[in-house]
């Protein structure tokens, strides 16, 4: 084996091992599901929380999750009906077993509630604590100004108005989330 | 004499032109073959031959340095992209898993059965912008050519109209010669910065704007640092997805709009995530392939340099010996 390859191969092996263990974990949840359908019933939600550039949770057992579905907040408890929910800008709250909670702001995405697990695929997710209220206010004002400018100049700017409207929606949701958490 | 210098210079020029095209691996394999006869022919003309060998040694040495540096750069980049890919693989995988419920084997049959209705298939080819990365780009374009019809018209035998969207310069160059008529859009400089989701969405929108009935994404799946797998991933177009929506009946669609609108959004989300996964896989594969290609090139250059050094020293020694013999012979002739 060439010497230069070793570090890269090591990384690959680690990755492979991790993937393997992930597969094993999936198999484990599969077994758990088999157990659940047999009537035992689990009291935990297996949560996967992904966004494009990071993994927030993988195969983590939590007691419940609340996601901002487009029709309203949706609480996911164990043995939830299989659902596909589109998310709107809002807060995902994860309740751990030790009654601690974790809150993330998500911009949009989808939540898949499978019989054996729950996958949250968000386009962007940040911890609520990491949001800066002043920056939010500033960005909100900016988007509102853009929206006003675009909508006053007529129908030609419909696309720009729509983009500004999205910005306003997201920042308003963000503002609400931050102010309610303090 | 002139002829001999010419031959030596020719050998040097050939090597130079190889380095220009950048086929590092080939340089090392081919060059010694071209060198041997020219040197043998130069047997009597010592100085010109030595100079030619010296020049070659110098150029091979610098090529070796360049390929070694490129290998280092690729290795460093690989570490970055691999870490990023590791973080984002589950994202694409979980969406893919959901759509995996669609009966994949029925897809092509479905396409065929409705062939009379004039179906459109979009081939999204993900390749790198820069070369010197082994065969990753060639493998992908070969895969694409297999799918494309060989006849002159844009429709293949089963009546599906094909279109190609190429991401990356190398794929465009490779496919332009044979299949330029299928091209709709080409993207370049996608891999200039690390692959990001917003950037992917721009490309995905372009795909959706064409409203194809089937999308096939071609890319290199990253298996390990020494193995990359050319892959094609078919996605169902929106219309066929709607027709097959019954497989999702197990799931409730939660929305304030009607559930078909959710399916449209979900489809768009799927295209973006799968494309994002493909882009990341391909950029990781590219760096890995470049790293091993450049390592081979450096090894070959070093080996070749060793051979040439041996040859050079032998020849120099021969020159010195001959001169000594001449002097001794001359001296002994004078003594008599």
From TrEMBL, chain A:
Signal sequence interval, chain numbering: none
Residue ranges constituting the ATP synthase F1 complex delta/epsilon subunit N-terminal domain according to the UniProt record: 49-125
InterPro entries membership: ATP_synth_F1_dsu/esu, ATP_synth_F1_dsu/esu_N, ATPsynth_dsu/esu_N
Broad class of where this protein is predominantly found: mitochondrion
UniProt keyword list: Hydrogen ion transport, Ion transport, Membrane, Mitochondrion, Mitochondrion inner membrane, Transit peptide, Transport
GO molecular function, one term: proton-transporting ATP synthase activity, rotational mechanism
Organism domain of life: Eukaryota
UniProt subcellular location: Mitochondrion inner membrane
GO CC annotation: mitochondrial inner membrane; proton-transporting ATP synthase complex
NCBIfam families the UniProt entry points to: ATP_synt_epsi
Family of the protein in this entry: Belongs to the ATPase epsilon chain family.
Family annotation (PANTHER family): ATP SYNTHASE DELTA/EPSILON CHAIN, ATP SYNTHASE SUBUNIT DELTA, MITOCHONDRIAL
Protein name: ATP synthase subunit delta, mitochondrial
Annotated source species: Cyanidiococcus yangmingshanensis
Gene: ATP5D
From TrEMBL, chain B:
Pfam family membership, one: ATP-synt
Gene3D superfamilies for the chain: 3.40.1380.10, ATP synthase, gamma subunit, helix hairpin domain
Keyword annotations: ATP synthesis, CF(1), Hydrogen ion transport, Ion transport, Membrane, Mitochondrion, Mitochondrion inner membrane, Transport
Domain of life from the UniProt record: Eukaryota
Sequence similarity: Belongs to the ATPase gamma chain family.
Name of this chain's protein: ATP synthase subunit gamma, mitochondrial
Annotated membrane topology: Peripheral membrane protein
Subcellular location: Mitochondrion inner membrane
InterPro entries attached to this UniProt entry: ATP_synth_F1_ATPase_gsu (IPR035968), ATP_synth_F1_gsu (IPR000131), ATP_synth_F1_gsu_CS (IPR023632)
Organism of provenance: Cyanidiococcus yangmingshanensis
A Gene Ontology cellular-component term: mitochondrial inner membrane
Entry GO MF terms: proton-transporting ATP synthase activity, rotational mechanism
């Amino acid at each position: 084996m060439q010497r230069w390859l070793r570090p890269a191969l090591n990384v690959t092996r680690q990755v492979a091992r991790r993937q393997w263990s992930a597969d094993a974990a999936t198999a484990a949840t599969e077994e758990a599901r088999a157990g659940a359908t047999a009537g035992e019933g689990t009291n935990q939600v297996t949560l996967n929380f992904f966004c494009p550039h990071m993994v927030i949770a993988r195969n983590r057992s939590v007691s419940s999750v609340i996601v901002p579905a487009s029709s309203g907040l949706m609480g996911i408890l164990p043995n939830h009906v299989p659902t596909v929910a589109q998310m709107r800008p809002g807060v995902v709250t994860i309740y751990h077993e030790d009654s601690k909670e974790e809150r993330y702001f998500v911009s949009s995405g989808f939540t898949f509630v499978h019989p054996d697990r729950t996958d949250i695929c968000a386009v962007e997710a940040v911890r609520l604590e990491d949001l800066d209220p002043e920056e939010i206010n500033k960005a909100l004002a900016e988007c509102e100004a853009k929206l006003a400018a675009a909508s006053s100049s007529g129908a030609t700017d419909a696309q720009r108005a729509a983009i500004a409207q999205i910005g306003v929606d997201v920042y308003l949701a963000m503002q609400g989330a931050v102010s309610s958490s303090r | 004499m002139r002829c001999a210098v010419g031959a030596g210079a020719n050998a040097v020029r050939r090597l130079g032109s190889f380095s220009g095209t950048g086929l590092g691996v080939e340089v090392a394999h081919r060059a010694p073959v071209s060198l041997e006869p020219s040197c043998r022919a130069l047997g009597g003309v010592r100085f010109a031959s030595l100079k030619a060998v010296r020049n070659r040694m110098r150029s091979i040495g610098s090529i070796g340095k360049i390929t070694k540096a490129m290998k280092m750069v690729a290795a460093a980049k690989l570490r970055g992209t691999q870490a990023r890919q590791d973080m984002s693989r589950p994202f694409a995988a979980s969406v893919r898993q959901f759509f995996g419920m669609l009966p994949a084997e029925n897809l092509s049959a479905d396409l065929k059965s409705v062939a009379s209705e004039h179906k459109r298939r979009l081939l999204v080819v993900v390749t790198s912008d820069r070369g010197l990365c082994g065969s990753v780009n060639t493998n992908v374009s070969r895969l694409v050519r297999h799918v494309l019809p060989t006849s002159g018209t844009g429709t293949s035998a089963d009546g599906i109209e094909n279109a190609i969207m190429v991401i990356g310069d190398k794929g465009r160059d490779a496919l332009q010669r044979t299949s330029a008529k299928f091209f709709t859009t080409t993207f370049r400089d996608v891999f200039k910065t690390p692959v990001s989701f917003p950037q992917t969405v721009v490309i995905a929108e372009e795909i959706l704007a064409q409203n194809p009935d089937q999308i096939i994404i071609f890319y290199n799946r990253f298996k390990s640092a020494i193995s990359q797998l050319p892959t094609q991933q078919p996605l169902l177009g929106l219309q066929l997805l709607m027709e097959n929506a019954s497989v999702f009946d197990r799931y409730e669609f939660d929305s304030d709009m009607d559930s078909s609108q959710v399916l449209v959004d979900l489809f768009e989300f799927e295209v973006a995530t799968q494309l994002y996964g493909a882009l990341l896989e391909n950029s990781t594969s590219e760096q890995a392939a470049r790293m091993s290609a450049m390592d081979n090139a450096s090894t070959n250059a070093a080996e070749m340099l060793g051979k040439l050094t041996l040859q050079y020293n032998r020849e120099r020694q021969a020159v010195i010996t001959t001169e000594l013999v001449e002097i001794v012979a001359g001296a002994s002739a004078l003594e008599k």
